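[STRUCTURE TOKENS]
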Amino acid sequence: MVDWALRPASVMDVEAVAELRAAALRPDLERLGRYDEQRVRQRLRDGFTPAHTWMIEVDGALAGCVALRPAKHTYWLEHFYLDPDLQGRGIGTAVLSRLLEWCDREDAVVRLNVLQGSSARQLYERHGFTAETEDEVDVFMVRHPSSPGDHPAETRPGSRASSLRSPAGAVAPAGPSSSFGLSIDSAGDRFVVAWTACCRSGLL
């Protein structure tokens, strides 16, 4: 069982996340002939927005990150990176399930892009994403909100996952022993993370 936690990102996390991105994307970027030591880090620095980002921790140490950026009529799942040494242990699946459950409660469309040939595409397809457009480097994918009956058993409301209400009254997904809040103002296209504690889960 892997005990993982989420905490809000801060501006101090940018360099750690830049290094994480370089390590996580290097195999696929090298395969595509696109890896550049400086550019892979600078692109993260240029696009890093702490207010939309969570840091994933395992045993108190940095394990990954994920961002959910609001846009017109949709959310963009971005900067979803996991330490290569921790991949294959179900952490990414558990984190993604929590975020998508929350998006389903908001009846929100979610979009992302993944590198051509990346094994991450299989993870996204298992969670309902389908290819929308693609080019020689990226595949752009979309996921429309699912009904409650479409949730996997481990994340379906009323089963192993619990739900918490944010300060604004929105329902956010959480794992066992969790305590955090998310405040979303979709009409104003504002995304505010209001945490009261870190989110922990023992799900694989």
